[in-house]
Every structure is written in C-alpha cells, then in structure tokens.
Amino acid sequence: MNSKSSDNSAGVFSRWTTRRWLRVGVATTLVVLAVLGSLGGWAMWRTSQITTELVDRRSPALIQAIRLEAALVNQETGIRGYGIAGQSDFLQPYKKGLADEKAALQRLRPLLREDASAVADLAAVEKLAGTWQEHFARPLSASSSENAVALAGARADEGKITFDALRRSMARQQTHLTSERNAASHELSQAVTLRNWMFAVIAAVILLVAGLVFEGLRRGITGPISRLGSAARDVAHGHFDRAITGTGPADLRRLASDVESMRRRLVEELQFSEESRSLLDEQAMELKRSNSELEQFAYVASHDLQEPLRKVSSFTQLLQRRYGSQLDERADQYIAFAVDGANRMQALINDLLAFSRVGRVHNDHQTVDLEGVVERTLDTLSVAIEESGADITHDPLPTIVGDNTQLSMLWQNLLSNSIKFRSPDRSPHIHIGVARDADSDTWEFAVTDNGIGIAPEFQEKVFSLFQRLHTKDAYPGTGIGLAMCKKVVEFHNGTIRIDPEYTLGTRIMFTLPATAAAPEAPERKTQP
Fold first, then answer.
1. Within 10 A of 21 (CB to CB), how many other CB atoms are there?
2. How confident is the model over 266-308, as pLDDT tens digits?
3. pTM score, two decimals?
4. Cα-based distances in Å from 14 to 9, 118, 313
5. Cα–Cα distance for residue pair 74/241, rounded to 1 Å
6. Beta bridge partner(s), residue 448
7. Which of 55, 136, 292, 420 has its CB surrounded by the most CB atoms within 10 Å?
8. pLDDT tens digits, residue range 40-87?
9. Burial state string for 77-103 with b = 16 or more CB within 10 A and e = fewer than 16
C-alpha cells in the first residue's frame, strides 16, 4: 500500500512543469521567509519593548525616587539648622527642597501609575513626608527665630522619629525600584540573547534555503538543460546516432522528445539525401554521357552532314550550268529550289551548332568591355547598316564579367533583328540604353527600335526555338536568333523580355550582373 502511494506521488510530481516547480519553490521560500521574518520581527519588537520599559520608566522612576529623597533630606537639614541656630538663612535649603520635592513627585507619579506596589510605596512616602512636614517642618519654619529654637527643642524627638520612618520608607521604595530595574535589565539581556540567536537561526535557515534552491535548480532545470544542450550540440556536430533523452520537469522532457524527433527526422532526411545524391551522381554520369554524345553529334553535324549538303548544292549548280540549255524553265526552277533548300539546311545546322555551344564550348568568363563588343558588332553589320540606312546610337556602356564570344553573339542577333524587321515606311532608328539597378546590383539594357514591332500575344513565343512570325520569303532566317539571345542572357544569370508598354516598334530589355569595378552609367533615357 505504501509502495503504491509512493508511486502515485512520483507520478504526480513527474507531470509537474518547470513553471510549476518554480511556482511551488518560490511560494515555499516566501512562506519560510515570512515565518522567519515574523519571528525576527517579534524578537525585535520584544527587545524594543523591554528597552523602552527600562529606559523610559524603570530607570527614570529610580532616578526621581533618589531626587525625592534628596529633596526631603535637604528639607530636614534646613529645618534642623534653623531650629538649632535660629538663623533664617538655614531655611533656604528647606524651601529649595520643597520645590524639588514637588518636581520629583510630578515626574514620579506618571512613571509608577501602572505598578501597584510602586504606587503603594510612593503613597507611604508621601504620607510620612506629609506627617513630618505637618507636625514639625511647617510649624518650625513659620516660627520666629526665638520661638524656632524653643519649638525645635520641644519637638526634636518626635521629628527625628518621624523622619527616620520616612527614611526607611524611601529606602524600601528605592530597593523595590532597583529590583524592578535589575529585573528589567536581566529580561532585556535575555531578549537580546534570544534575538541574536534567532537572527543566527534565520541566517542559517536562509543559507539552507538558498542552498536547497540552488541545488534544486541545478538538478531540476540547469542540469537537464545543460545535458540536453550538450546532446543537441553533439547532433549538430554530426553525431546523428546519439539518442537524446530528457530528464527533469515535464516540459523539459517534452522538449527533449521534440529534439529527438527532429534528430530522427534529420537522420531520415540525410538517408534520403544520400539516396538523392547517389541518384544525382547517376544522372550526372548520364548527363555527361549525353553531352559526350551531343558533342559527337555536333561534330557529325558540322562535318558529315554539311559535306553532303555542299555536294548537293554544288552538283545541282553544276548540273544547271552544264545542261542549262537542254532544260526548260520548270527544271531551272526545281534546281533553284534544291539549291535554296540545301543552303537553308546548312544555315539551320550552323545556327543549331552555335545554339548548342552556348555555355558548353564558349564558357570563358572574363572582364568584357561592352563598348568594344558593340563597336565590333557594328563593324560586322556595317553592310546591312549601310544598305538599310539604320541610325544606331547607344549610352555609355559598362564593363562586366562574362564570355566575350557569347556576348558578341547576343548583340549581333539583337541588332541584326532590329535592322531586319525594320518598317518600310521609315528609316530604322535603334538605340541601346543602359541603367544600373542598385537594389539587385544588375545592369538593365534596353534595345529600342522603330520597326514593325511584335504583337503582344507573340512576345513570349518569339524566345522559343524555330518560332517564326513571318514567312522566309518576307524575312529570311531560321527562327533561332532570339532563342539564342535568351540562352546567352540566362547563362549570365540575367533575364530577357519584351517591353509590352512600348508600341512604336520593339524594345527588348535584358539584365546582366554588375561588377564591383563597373563604372556608373547615366539614368536610362526615354526613347521615342
């Protein structure tokens, strides 16, 4: 039965959280401190009360009793001298003693009010003092010098007997007051000793409580948290096989359980990552093999496929020259179709080869001065520019890091497209604008022309392979140019798009990463 009760108690305590343990611990500590504070306060109050009793009543009462005795003795001395010598000068001590007696009684009565025995002693002294004054002192002091001597001689024995009784009464009073003061002093000494011991016990209990609180915090909170943190750091350092177990309050155990669940999830994720990495390695090998096959295909396409095309074109043209007189007009037309098809197939193969080499063959990143790249591109397109009468301008262009060959292909395709798709109603005007975006740390370029433009529904489609918006008779080409531009820009971690808000032609906008040493470019101007 006792074992079952202990198990139930342990089960109840095991469900306590850190907050509850702290709340119970703080409440218990406060109760203990309140009890100790009450005991310490009582000891201080008791000591203060006895001190007040001794200082404010017992000692002053004894002092005033002594002063009362001195005043009465002065009266007796003065009266006795006046009765012997008959000189009025001896009445001065008597009169002063009367004033001192009155003052001493006024101070003494309030001090003895709560002590019945002391009041009785004072009443006896006052009665005997009154008797002595009534029968001896006052009649003698009121007599003349001649009568005073005779009256003093007649009442000397009576006065002595009465004053001796008064002396004994005052001695008893002082003895009682001295005894009470000594008793109060002893009681004060005991109270001080009790207070000191009580404060010593309070200090010891406070130290014990502080030690228990420290040990409880160490075992119940800081220790489990430290062990949990150590286990978590081990897991963070790569020891994923270490199980995390929680101790201490319920919430710390739940936290340890959550961390353990996270560790298990990490182990599962790592296993999955290892499997994924193995799969990626296999895919990388497959991609490497595929690239090798692609390079082999590119070699075949550049040699084995182009050679038959050249032969077809050459022998077809040779056939036309040698047997042209024997063929009719329809045969000449067929031969022209064959030669044109062979030439277009060769151009398509060359463009496909150039497209496949972007990022694979041409991948030499270095500092590229776009001013020089554009100038060389304009030289390359000088014949087309002269024939079309195109006016090409540009902002000061920056220096970036990229592949010089690819960037040359980018500008050549963009500018040749602007020249090719010019409007028949006006001379082509092309402007290259550039501005730096400080937020994304990129250069934003805009190639703007006043050509025939691109309809909104085709502005995404034109960046795909073999997407042509016109027949080959109207505008020759393979439909790979803008797709190659997109591939070059994305290879340089940029983006490319057509500005849908510009309707006076076409504005192709693209971004390229800026470099730390790149010069600042002016703000982009709005082009007509």
1. 19
2. 778 888 888 888 888 888 888 777 766 666 666 565 556 666 6
3. 0.43
4. 9, 68, 93
5. 105
6. 431, 507
7. 136
8. 888 888 888 888 888 888 889 889 889 988 988 988 888 888 777 777
9. ebbbbbbeebeeebbebbeebbebbee
